Structures are given as C-alpha cells and as structure tokens.
Amino acid sequence: MEHNMACQSCGSLRLASISAKCSDCCCFWYRDDEHQGYAPHHVGVGGGDYVEIQWCLECGQIQESWPVPEPEFLDDDS
To answer: What whole-number distance in Å separates Cα of residue 44 and Cα of residue 63?
Structure first.
C-alpha cells in the first residue's frame, strides 16, 4: 500500500490506511454468497492474511483501482 499520495477522487492529502492481520479468519459477503477463510484477493481490500484499506478522510473514497473483477469464489451463474 503506497503512502503519501493524493486521493484519486478529490486530490486531498488526508489519506488514512489500516492493515489488519486476519490469517484464515476472514468472512466476506457479496450478493448472497459468503466466503470464509483468507481475505479474498482482487476485491480492493488486500488479500490473504491481511485486510488493507486506504481511504480519504475528506471525501470517503476508498483508494484502489476500480472496477474490480467478480470475486473468484463465486459461481458463474451468480
């Protein structure tokens, strides 16, 4: 996670970040599906052992590349 950059939405320098180690104790919900285990990759909040989020304290925008693909654990018919 890169620090000391500007918000991708409003340009503010008021960015905060958090990193939390959850190992294999993460629950992730999307639509009607639930994933338990490691944090999913490629959904904008870290992945694996860690949940990592950076957001703007000015406008609230989560800092990530959007859009993200469908989570890999979902069936094609979801």
So the answer is: 8
Order of strands across the sheet that contains 46-47? 15-21, 50-56, 46-47
- Over its length of 78 residues, how does the chain's per-residue pLDDT go in tens digits? 666 699 999 999 999 999 999 999 999 999 888 989 999 888 889 999 999 999 999 999 999 988 888 876 654 443
Query: Where exactly are the structural domains of the chain?
Result: 15-56
Question: What distance in Å separates the CA atoms of residue 31 and residue 22, rounded to the nearest whole number?
Answer: 22
Taking each continuous run of H as one helix and of E as one strand, the counts in the chain are 0, 5
6's CB contacts (< 8 A; 6+ apart) are 12, 13, 15
In this structure, are residues 26 and 41 in contact, taking their beta carbons and an 8 Å threshold? no
User: What is the identity of the amino acid at 2?
Assistant: E
